[in-house]
Amino acid sequence: EAQVTQNPRYLITVTGKKLTVTCSQNMNHEYMSWYRQDPGLGLRQIYYSMNVEVTDKGDVPEGYKVSRKEKRNFPLILESPSPNQTSLYFCASRGLAEYNEQFFGPGTRLTVL
Amino acid sequence: SQQGEEDPQALSIQEGENATMNCSYKTSINNLQWYRQNSGRGLVHLILIRSNEREKHSGRLRVTLDTSKKSSSLLITASRAADTASYFCATGAPGDAGGTSYGKLTFGQGTILTVHP
User: Fold this and answer.
1) What is the pLDDT along chain A (113 residues), one digit of tens a residue?
2) CB distance B45–A90 less than 8 Å?
3) Cβ neighbours for B98, distance < 8 A, ≥ 6 positions apart
4) Cis omega before residue B8 (within 30°)?
5) What sign results for the dihedral spanned by CA atoms A88, A89, A93, A98?
6) Is A48 helix (H, G, I), strand (E, B) or coil?
7) Integer angstrom CA distances of residue A58 from A34, A48, A61, A70, B91
8) Spatial distance between the Cα atoms of B42 and A89, rounded to a whole number of angstroms
9) Which of residues 77-116 of B touch A (CB under 8 A)?
10) Which of A:47-76 have CB within 8 Å of B?
11) CA of B105: how far to CAs of A43, B32, B91, in Å?
12) Across chain B, where does the E strand assignment appear?
């Protein structure tokens, strides 16, 4: 089954404790992206990657890092989480052809105390 | 900044009625897509309309695109309680010479649709 998986689905942590949210897709997609969703603000892109070893900032990259060492994986790293990073996070992927839809993971609900 | 803005923010209707949601955007697009999100879950792609298309249908969904007004609408006909969800429009940027911007989608804030049985 074609899918994007994220782990963990729920995470409660404390300020400053480094964490990683994993993302994996099995569709051989070149393009992968991370979004955060906050009430009243919709989905905002954090980082994206066009292919292995190619990453770039989205609209709200501060406080986040990503890596793309393998095509299928695109982890999101919070080196020193803060309470304003409490949010619902989505990973997504799509092929690079012109009119491809985007596939979303199930989401990770992060709470930073 | 948000590219797409949906209107209304919330819509409440009875089962069997039609639901219309609108999306406006600011800059040139390559395509416009509509997604659905059930509460707290991942977004699911519904339909894509290209910038050179004016109307598209998929089952009970009808999407229109007016590039001169930079707006789109999503019509759900004969709504069902199971259609209750948030609906988002997302705009795809025109490709640059290297085709590298096709991947980026910019989402609006969504319309919350409630369909009462």
Assistant:
1) 889 999 999 999 999 999 999 999 999 999 999 999 998 888 999 999 989 999 999 999 999 999 999 999 999 999 999 999 999 999 999 987 777 888 999 999 999 99
2) no
3) none
4) yes
5) positive
6) strand
7) 9, 6, 6, 20, 15
8) 9
9) 88, 90, 92, 95, 99-100, 102-110
10) 48, 50, 59
11) 10, 9, 5
12) 5-7, 10-14, 19-24, 31-37, 43-50, 55-58, 61-66, 71-76, 85-92, 105-107, 111-116
| pLDDT tier, B3 (very low <50, low <70, confident <90, very high otherwise) | low
A4, A105 in Cβ contact below 8 A?
Answer: yes
Contact criterion met (CB < 8 Å) for A31 and B2: no
B42 touches chain A (CB under 8 A): yes
DSSP 8-state secondary structure symbol assigned to residue A92: E
d(CA A50, CA A66): 12
Q: Is-contact B68 B82, C-beta < 8 A?
A: no
